[in-house]
Design a protein that fits this description.
The strands form 3 sheets. Strands 1, 2, 3, 4, 5, 6, 9, 12, 13, 14 and 15 form an 11-stranded mixed beta sheet that branches. The protein has 2 domains: 204 residues, no CATH class; 227 residues, no CATH class. It contains 15 helices and 15 strands. Strand 7 and strand 8 form a beta hairpin. The chain is 47% helix and 19% strand. By secondary structure, the chain is of the alpha+beta class.
């Protein structure tokens, strides 16, 4: 485990919790001490037993630590969306295990979840790696083509393959070996058009990159008429090749651990158990290292303290900083945290309109209504007036079908304002707790990098 990252402890968990509760009180964050102590005790038990827990009532399973944060309240909804995003089994060739990840897998904590993120293990049985890659290319393209567009969804992008050489694409220089993003139209055509660095046009085909699939992912915009919600749904695929002798090889070179996933069907237990045995002994250290890399990015490059908070929570759960985790856990239940979701919802709305989405207009108007109520509940004073007014303009434009460039600009302004307020909320409350501040400053490299500027 990554215990080296832990600060040296000279106090009991109860004393540390009392100190953090006092810090939280000063920042207006309410923590129920009895509930927090119960959660800390459950974490200690779950952490000591590196085991998977199965819920017989709901039929879901995952690591004990992960299951502590999962609520089955909207399980049927997530299973329904899962049927859209999942790769299906092919007997004797393709076997899969679909799970929730991200905020959807932490529904007891994430009172205001954002996107619907899924993670699917895809194990391909084939005579050779080359054949497994060809099967993967076929399966992913078939999935994309079968879910291009429907009454309540639209495919946004597919990640598949790596650039075989440096290219220029849409004015951006992309390195050889970096992931290729395919639009729905490019998946249909089976090719992307790029430029070489000398300006010469070039074409990269789907089949050409099949033997170097890299990390694979699909993203959709989905509408839920019953909830009046628009959201992004994604599925990240962890693909392995199983040779005739039973040897299992990750096609992207690394088998992901299972510390953040809730698997949706009991029928997936056999494949999960088979693949879980292959997870590297240092998987926790590697996973924490990846999360810390993302924290650095969201502290300095693409500043987003909501994403920092989510990743710190996952780090602290795994490296034994449970008291800090208990504090961060409470932040997601604060009304202002809803603005983080609001930013994501505006982004989804903007993407749907930019793509020419023909979902029912009522769904989009309901989305705007939801955002307005979120702002009214979370803010007050001039901030509430300014952002609520902006969202009312968005709603009016939608009702009049005025969705041109002026609408796009208005949505961008609203999104920027929401993320700025959410950033201020999470930044101030994270930095208010000395151990968390020290951890962030260590990752950022210096104290100044952890401040928004």
């Amino acid at each position: 485990m990554a215990d080296a990252a832990q600060p040296e402890r000279h106090t009991t968990p109860q004393q540390e919790l009392a100190q953090i509760i006092e810090s939280a009180r000063r920042m207006g964050v309410e923590i129920d001490e009895e509930e927090a102590l119960q959660w800390l005790a459950a974490m200690a038990v779950g952490h000591s037993a590196d085991a998977v827990e199965y819920d017989t009532r709901s039929g879901v399973f995952g690591h004990k630590i992960t299951m502590l944060d999962f609520s089955p309240a909207e399980l049927e909804h997530f299973r329904e969306v899962g049927r859209l995003v999942e790769i299906y089994d092919e007997p004797g060739v393709v076997e899969t295990a679909l799970s929730l990840s991200g905020s959807a897998a932490q529904s007891k904590v994430q009172t205001y979840p954002g996107d619907a993120d899924y993670f699917e293990r895809v194990n391909i049985r084939a005579l050779s790696r080359e054949e497994a890659c060809r099967i993967l290319a076929r399966v992913l393209r078939d999935k994309a083509l079968g879910t291009l567009k429907g009454p309540t969804y639209q495919l946004i992008q597919v990640r598949f393959g790596n650039y075989p050489y440096e290219v220029m694409r849409n004015g951006r220089k992309l390195k050889a070996g970096s992931s290729i993003g395919w639009t729905a139209e490019e998946v249909q055509a089976g090719r992307v058009e790029v430029e070489r660095l000398d300006g010469a046009p070039a074409v990269i085909t789907w089949d050409e990159v099949a033997q170097d699939p890299g990390w694979c992912k699909m993203d959709w915009i989905i509408a839920d008429p019953q909830r009046g919600r628009l959201a992004n749904a994604s599925n990240m695929f962890d693909v392995t090749w199983e040779a005739p002798d039973g040897a299992i090889t990750p096609l992207d070179g690394y088998l992901d651990p299972y510390f953040q996933e809730v698997y949706l069907e009991a029928a997936s237990i056999p494949i999960f158990a088979k693949l879980a045995k292959q997870v590297a002994a240092d998987a926790v250290d590697h996973y924490i290292g990846q999360l810390e890399k993302e924290v650095r990015k969201y502290l300095a490059e693409d500043v987003n303290y909501g994403k920092v908070a989510k990743r710190l929570y996952n780090i602290f759960r795994l490296n034994g900083q449970y008291v800090e985790a208990a504090y961060v856990r409470e932040l997601f239940d604060e009304p202002a945290a809803a603005l983080y979701q609001g930013w994501a919802l505006v982004r989804s709305l903007d993407e749907a309109l930019h793509l020419g989405q023909d979902m029912a207009l009522e769904n989009l108007i309901a989305q705007a209504d939801q955002l307005i109520f979120t702002v009214i509940d979370a803010l007050e004073g001039e901030e509430e007036k300014a952002i609520a007014g902006r969202l009312l303009q968005l709603r009016k434009a939608l009702s009049l079908r005025q969705t041109g460039q002026a609408f796009v600009d208005l949505a961008e302004t609203a999104r920027t304002e929401l993320i700025d307020i959410a950033n201020d909320f999470f930044r101030d409350r994270l930095l208010a707790v000395p151990p968390i501040r020290a951890y962030m400053e260590r990752l950022a490299g210096d104290g100044g990098s952890s401040r928004r500027g």
